[in-house]
Design a protein that fits this description.
- The complex is a heterodimer of chains A (423) and B (196).
- Helices cover 78% and strands 0% of the residues of chain A.
- With 423 residues, chain A is mostly helical.
- Chain A has one domain: Up-down Bundle (Amino acid/polyamine transporter I), CATH 1.20.1740.
- Helix content of chain B is 13%, strand content 45%.
- Chain B contains 4 helices and 15 strands.
- In chain B, a hairpin with a 7-residue loop joins strand 3 and strand 4.
- The chains are: A mainly alpha (423), B mainly beta (196).
């Protein structure tokens, strides 16, 4: 025990070790602010102002708890979540989960290519040029890069979210109102507000994140003595995600909420928000917002197919990993390539059922999350698998309570998606 | 059970287990084999007991529920596709240690198969069992046809293993003789897969 406490001191060695570990938690959190996430936060800010900000804090706590458990399971077992589900439960359950993962993640990938198309058009770029160039670039980086190189590129791209923080300042918000909205829980008793709260939570905690963080912790080869550093990585990622999400909400709330002449309810997408910012907060705020959307979409369009490839290969026991060549891991790169090519093609080919795919994706995500979380909580209490790293009684009770809240919100989100409530 | 056709472990798991008095005492949870891979005979039956207050000769302080014990195969009086019947009474069942044995459900089923260099092949979809001197022995590891068919490399690899060990099972079954060792995280096959 003494040794553990001593090892957590901020020494030069520990700092270097932390820098070596940083990556999976930050990347997964930043990618969560993808085109769909930015749209949700933009609409939330425009329609409900600062009053919706407080929900980001409990959501961040929930997210940290879930992702920390994934990191712990990955480090302790050396296996991804899909592999653990397969070994602990059954082939049938795993196959069903994989089907849902494919549907959910493909919809997410399509929405990110839609984000690339929309934001590139804001800069005057033709989507028929921007989307293929982005797709080939993303594909090439992962195919040719090692895990370490790819992770560095991803971490560097994470810096782009600073654009939203600057945009928020350029929109000149009332900071006292911001503080009140963030720290004093308030709400509205109407369906639209409730659906927005549920959508915010659902956007922030998505099943692909659990699979991705655990898989990348394993791929990175982190060991038990690095668990504490990976927790810090997860914590930093959660804080950065929340700050970026809050910046988007603040920017849109300051620019559009209750502003005469600005149709806040007409803002239904991130690119509309970026365009509408120009007359209200200035062209630089608008450009930064659009630039953030473009980079976030490219970023997520590369990670989501990667997450899917990891997950499917783990479940079925196929060779996988960025450090492998295409010839060594053909199905890993096959899934990756199919998602990127399919996602890009979906946006470029006229007449594709974009809305249907998005709805299917959101429903699949909604149905998947409770199943995945339940599996996780069962695995993490299994001493045969986790040894001394099982959840303690108190932590486990809190985790189940948190997951129960997510179940309720999740069912609500699926119902709202299918019924179109509050939209 | 038909002694000619191999059966899958999955078919056996969850079958009801009865004691010599005909009392339902639990269900099949696992099958154990000795760690010598050349003798893959089921030596113990893993029974998930509904409850007990005895573990072998030891009388417990109070009864416990949901306990899994290994019962020596000599205690299996009869089995068919619906149930297993044991030769002793519920509370007089002898038990064996799990140490030094492989558990087919716990250590083999769904596990990752790798070649000698650690290249991942596929996961074990089922463990095939054949009749052997009134008991059961492992004859092969099943890999899903639907999943394997997508890769010509895997099809070729399994075909090489089958030819090498003169397997007469279905084309999606890796003969048990091709298993070189079982590790905690993987089942290592003896032949190298040529990727790419």
């Amino acid at each position: 025990m003494q040794k553990t406490v001593k090892s957590r001191r901020l020494t030069r060695t520990n700092l270097l070790m932390l820098l070596g570990v940083l990556g999976p938690g930050i990347i997964v959190a930043m990618v969560d602010n993808d085109a769909g996430g930015i749209t949700t936060y933009s609409v939330a800010g425009a329609r409900f102002g600062y009053s919706i900000l407080w929900i980001l804090i409990p959501t961040a706590v929930l997210l940290f708890m879930v992702q920390e458990m994934n990191a712990r399971m990955g480090i302790v077992t050396g296996k991804g979540l899909a592999a653990l589900i397969r070994e602990r439960f059954s082939f049938r359950l795993t196959a069903a989960i994989m089907l849902a993962v494919l549907v959910a993640n493909f919809g997410n990938a399509v929405s990110n290519f839609a984000g690339i198309a929309a934001s590139s058009q804001l800069f005057g770029l033709n989507k028929f040029v921007a989307v293929p160039v982005a797709a080939v670039g993303i594909w090439f980086v992962v195919l040719k890069g090692s895990y370490k190189a790819v992770e560095k590129v991803f971490l560097l791209v994470s810096l782009v979210y600073v654009a939203y923080i600057i945009s928020a300042f350029l929109a000149h918000p009332d900071w006292s109102e911001v503080a009140r909205g963030a720290f004093v829980p308030s709400g509205q008793l109407n369906a639209a507000y409730a659906v927005m709260v549920v959508t915010l939570v659902g956007t922030t905690i998505a099943p692909w994140m659990q699979f991705y963080q655990q898989a990348s912790v394993v791929d990175k080869g982190l060991k038990s003595d690095q668990l504490w550093f990976e927790r810090i990585d997860t914590g930093i990622g959660t804080v950065l995600l929340t700050v970026a999400a809050a910046a988007i909400v603040i920017c849109c709330a300051a620019a559009f909420f209750n502003k005469p002449g600005v149709g806040a309810t007409q803002i239904t997408s991130a690119e509309q928000a970026a365009q509408a910012l120009a007359p209200v907060a200035g062209k630089y705020a608008s450009y930064l917002f659009a630039f953030g959307l473009l980079c976030a979409s490219i970023f997520a369009a590369s990670i989501l197919p990667l997450s899917t490839a990891y997950t499917v290969c783990e479940a079925f026991g196929w060779e996988a990993g960025i450090d492998r060549t295409f010839a060594e891991a053909p199905r890993f790169y096959g899934v990756y390539t199919a998602f990127i090519a399919g996602g890009a093609a979906f946006i470029l080919v006229p007449g594709m059922p974009l809305i249907t795919v998005m709805l299917l994706s959101q429903t699949a995500n909604g149905l998947l999350l409770p199943v995945v979380l339940t599996c996780m909580l069962k695995v993490i209490r299994d001493r045969d698998i986790m040894g001394d790293h099982v959840n303690g009684d108190v932590y486990n009770t809190i985790a189940w309570a948190a997951v129960a809240v997510l179940y309720v919100l999740d069912i609500w989100l699926v119902a709202a998606t299918l019924l179109g409530a509050g939209r | 059970m038909d002694p000619v056709e191999p059966i899958g472990l999955r078919q056996i798991l969850k079958l009801k287990v009865f004691d010599s008095d005909g009392k339902h005492i639990g269900h099949v949870q696992d099958l154990a084999i000795e760690r010598r891979l050349d003798v893959p005979r089921a030596c113990c039956l893993g029974v998930h007991m509904l409850w007990t207050d005895h573990v072998g000769d030891v009388k417990l302080v109070r009864r416990v529920e949901d306990i899994v014990v290994l019962v020596p195969w000599s205690q299996v009086a009869r089995f068919d596709e619906d149930e297993f019947a044991l030769a002793s009474e519920h509370l007089a069942l002898p038990v064996e240690s799990a140490g030094g044995r492989w558990l087919l459900r716990g250590d083999v089923l769904n596990k990752q198969m790798v070649d000698p260099h650690g290249n991942r092949i596929q996961r074990v979809d089922d463990v095939l069992l054949g009749a052997y001197e009134g008991g059961l022995r492992v004859v092969g590891l099943e890999v899903s046809k639907g999943l394997m068919i997508t890769s010509s490399t895997m099809r070729r690899y399994v075909a090489v293993l089958r030819r090498k060990h003169f397997s007469r099972q279905d084309s999606d079954v890796i003969p048990w003789e091709a298993v070189s060792r079982i590790e905690e995280d993987a089942i290592v096959l003896g032949e190298e897969v040529r990727l790419g």
